[in-house]
């Protein structure tokens, strides 16, 4: 269980660092991604981008 927690924590750090670069590619702005502003903060719920990245990871996993 500790290994999975560490893996998820590491993935969140890597994706957070790569977020500005991924937004330049259009991820986070796909139809199905929700953006809203609440109390002066902007929140992003990237549902479509998550599905797209999961499919890409699945294809890469199947190839290797």
UniProtKB/TrEMBL annotation:
Record flagged with keyword Membrane: yes
Pfam families: DUF2905
Record keyword Transmembrane present: yes
Chain segments annotated as transmembrane: 44-63
Record keywords, A-Z: Membrane, Transmembrane, Transmembrane helix
Protein name (record): DUF2905 domain-containing protein
Species classification: Bacteria, Pseudomonadati, Pseudomonadota, Betaproteobacteria, Burkholderiales
């Amino acid at each position: 269980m500790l290994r999975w927690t560490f893996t998820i924590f590491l993935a969140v750090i890597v994706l957070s660092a790569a977020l500005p670069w991924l937004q330049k590619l259009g991820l986070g702005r796909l139809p199905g991604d929700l953006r809203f502003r609440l109390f002066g903060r902007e929140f992003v719920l990237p549902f479509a981008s998550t599905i797209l990245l999961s499919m890409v990871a699945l294809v890469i996993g199947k190839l290797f």
